[in-house]
Design brief:
Clc chloride channel, alpha+beta, 7% strand, CBS-domain, 4 domains
Length: 693
């Protein structure tokens, strides 16, 4: 993958300016999104006030069909303009950052804004934070792409946008930053930490300047009433973990079930909206985000019967909205469920032990963090968000206990979170590093040119001659436009009946058109699956028009895989200790010790090797070294080596071998590389000043 940095290499000020810019733009988008939701709600129910306060004044028919009408627009909008705008929003950002180098299409921000505003404003039982995260990530990605920044920078700016989205939505800069680091990147390393913090701060500054410095929820000052409450909070942790598991599994079941509904995908949101409208008529608390209901649970004003009904109803309503094709987040629904479950649990323990327990609102507050952490597998984000919402340190012990227990219970019963579960359904398994690596590269990056092709009109005599003179095992047949027709194997031309027909047979007649081909845009994970399924060592690669553009083999795929593993495990090549935006030069140790006897080190390309490819130089045979990466002259980061690309004087090779072999290779700077292995008696060269042991 190319990691080009143009004229920004030596401008460290970018690591301050760009995250700040992304934070400001994301906050602006969040403000516009809030007004867009309000506008849709006004069209749906005739008011921009909190829905629960006005729904009793709205005609029944209007409440019933409002979600359906929103779905009628959302379905085609998402289907034909930006399919990735459907659903939660956060899984799409994780996938883009983890696998696609942070690249998100610019139109996603616009389509996501419209689709989510239509879903939420018309009554969809989802949250607005997921869309804002995806919108912010798209903003950061577009900024990076416009400046032609490398993948590492694009990933960082996308994470900055995600952080700004949470910070602006909840007036919680710390939680926003940790959400991006814990959930989006899964990495708290300093290269990403600084930019993400800056973006989160700037997004909060802008949102506070516009909306005011108000907490996201009305929270009473709660504290641990008695030391005897600790065992009760242990029980709350278990309850929150179980609620989160049920939420994840019901969501998963609804998504699988929706795929089997015999209705075109673009019309499913309307069908789901009609069912949701009927649910809202029976239980108005399910309309939209549900801030009023959460405030009621936190104040302890909701009855236990209402809480008991709302708990399963909210799980079903949110799952229905998203599974049918609506667009919105699950972050706020998780908080909603936590407040309901905690409030219900609090009502119970307060009834049983009134003298040693705080009000049910305290349990609702802690329950919000518990279900959120368990459902999204993000305990740090949940913990910090609760502190920022409550502003009260006194409740720290119950929160830490519940968050830890709830997350542990959820992970022990359900490996996937709400976010990773959506990715697993697409074949992306974040806990399997090898799968992430293989989905991060495409066939176009590793394929080799086709050495020889047969024209479809070539007579049998020419086909046989080509196989004999070139020693071919198979040959690919193409038409005059270079489109792949099929392939011919040596077994095909050995058939006596074929030879007997003579010039009556041409290459097209011999070609097996059922032979599988892969696209240059396919991932290496898909390619390896095809190689295994077809029991092949090599597959042809075609472009979108069917033109033969190369071939890829198992060796090509596995070479990338092993190099990436070595890069991640030992070299720290990508950005470790760099500035997080790909600017400046990475600051990594020039030598890393692997297992006894082997080290990895950067060495300059000898003058005698300039112009040769790694395949021509064959350092493994000539010097006992393996090249795992190359840093090209003028570039600041290493990349997986292309064995056919010519080397240049000034390039740096990242090699693995013994110290003696590396020293002897350094001695070839002014001499041609030896044709055989290293001489055992050759004296080692002086240690380079680059080396640090």
């Amino acid at each position: 993958m190319s990691r080009r940095v143009q004229h920004f290499d030596h401008t460290p000020i970018l690591m301050v300016l760009l995250p700040c810019l992304v934070g400001v733009l994301t906050a602006g988008a969040a403000i516009a999104f809030v007004y867009l939701i309000a506008g849709v709600q006004w069209l749906a129910i005739g008011s921009t006030d909190l829905p629960l306060k006005v729904l009793h004044q709205v005609p029944t028919w209007r409440v019933l069909i409002a979600p359906m009408l929103g779905g009628l627009v959302v379905g085609p909008l998402v289907r034909y303009l930006a399919p990735e705008a459907q659903g939660h929003g956060v899984p799409e950002v994780i996938e883009a950052v983890t696998i696609r180098g942070g690249v998100i299409r610019g139109r996603v921000a616009t389509v996501k804004s419209l689709a989510s505003a239509l879903t939420i404003g018309s009554g969809g039982s989802v949250g607005r934070e997921g869309p804002i995260v995806q919108i912010g990530a798209a903003v950061g990605s577009v900024v990076a792409q416009a400046l032609k920044l490398p993948p590492a920078s694009t990933r960082t700016l996308a994470a900055c946008g995600a952080a700004g989205g949470i910070a602006a939505a909840f007036n919680a800069p710390i939680a926003g930053a940790f959400f991006a680091l814990e959930v989006i990147t899964g990495n708290f390393a300093m290269p990403s930490f600084g930019p993400v913090i800056l973006s989160s701060v700037m997004a909060t500054v802008v949102s506070r300047a516009y909306f005011g410095d108000h907490p996201a929820f009305v929270v009473q000052p709660y504290a641990l009433q008695s030391i005897y409450e600790i065992p009760l909070y242990v029980g709350l942790g278990l309850v929150c973990g179980l609620v989160a598991v049920v939420f994840v599994r019901v969501m998963n079941s609804f998504e699988h079930g929706a795929a089997r509904v015999p209705v075109p995908r673009e019309w499913r949101p309307a069908l789901g909206g009609l069912i949701l409208g009927a649910m809202i008529l029976a239980l108005p608390n399910l309309y939209g985000v549900g801030y009023v209901t959460m405030d009621g649970a936190l104040s302890g004003s909701l009855t236990w019967t209402l809480l008991a009904v709302l708990l399963p109803a909210k799980i079903i309503a949110t799952s229905l909205t998203l599974a049918s094709g609506g667009s919105g987040g699950v972050f706020l629904p998780a908080l909603y469920l936590g407040a309901i479950a905690g409030g219900l649990y609090g009502k119970l323990v307060q009834h049983l032990l009134p003298t040693v327990t705080a009000g049910s609102g305290a349990y609702a507050l802690v329950g919000m963090a518990g279900v959120l952490s368990a459902a999204t597998h993000s305990p740090l984000t949940a913990l910090l968000l609760l502190f920022e919402m409550s502003g009260d340190y006194k409740i720290i012990l119950p929160v830490m206990l519940v968050v830890t227990l709830a997350t542990s219970v959820a992970r022990s019963l359900e490996r996937e979170s709400l976010y990773s579960n959506a990715l697993v359904q697409r074949g992306v398994k974040l806990h399997r590093r090898e799968d992430v690596i293989m989905r991060s590269h495409t066939v176009g990056e590793v394929m080799r040119p086709v050495d020889f092709t047969l024209r479809e009109s070539a007579p049998i005599g020419d086909v046989i001659a080509a196989f004999l003179t070139r020693g071919l095992v198979r040959a690919y047949v193409v038409d005059d436009a270079e489109k792949l027709v099929g392939e011919v194997s040596i077994l095909d031309i050995q058939d006596p009946e074929v030879r007997a027909l003579g010039d009556l047979v041409n290459a097209r007649d011999l070609a097996r058109s059922e032979a599988r081909a892969i696209r240059s845009t396919d991932t290496l994970a898909d390619t390896l699956d095809e190689l295994v399924w077809e029991e092949r060592d090599e597959l042809p690669a075609v472009d979108s028009g069917g033109k033969l553009v190369g071939v890829v083999s198992r060796r090509d795929v596995l070479r990338v895989y092993t190099n990436e593993l070595l890069t991640e495990d030992f070299l720290g090549i990508a950005d470790h200790a760099s500035d997080g935006l790909g600017v400046g030069r990475p600051k990594v140790a020039s030598q890393v010790h692997l297992h006894p006897g082997l080290v990895t080190e950067r060495v300059p390309v000898p003058q005698a090797m300039a112009g040769l490819s790694l395949r021509d130089a064959d350092l493994r045979a000539s010097h006992g070294l393996t090249v795992v990466a190359v840093r090209r002259t003028g570039e600041s980061v290493e990349r997986v080596p292309d064995p056919t690309a010519p080397l240049r004087a000034g390039d740096l090779l990242v090699v693995v071998g013994t110290l003696d072999h590396i020293d002897r290779f350094r001695a070839t700077r002014s001499a041609a590389p030896p044709a055989a292995g290293p001489s055992p008696g050759a004296p080692p060269a002086a240690t380079s000043p680059e080396r640090s042991t």
